Amino acid sequence: MAEVFRQRVLPEWIDYNGHLSEAYYVLVFGFATDALMERVGLGAGYREATGNSLYTVEAHVRYLREVPPGAELEVSTVVVEAGAKKVRLCHEMRLDGIVRATEEVMALHVDQEQGRSTPFPAEVAERLAGLAGPAPDYAGRGIG
Description:
The protein is α+β, with helices and mostly antiparallel strands. It contains 3 helices and 6 strands; from the N terminus they run βααβββββα. It is globular and about 45 Å long.
């Protein structure tokens, strides 16, 4: 089941070509990851209480179409794989129903004090599994 995050493009995110600068696509995708973290119980309160967090260790972004100033973006997120200590997400950024960009993310659940991965709590693992869906056709592709 896909989660949906919404974000308006801010004026300062527009580049010299008159559309969303590449770094801000990633920022919006990061906000969508944060929203998912809140949804499954990995939000700020969890981080403060446990010292554990989700760390992105790999990401692949595809810039498919321009995003104009002031756009109201929708980012749908699906969990395509959830292991004991890792999760793989796929984000799709849409405007007017058209996919403008995608991002595939591999993230690890990390104990920040130990500096290494640690298993998700059982309830978080269950929530992630409940959001699982099929991998889109672009998942797992390399550049080339």
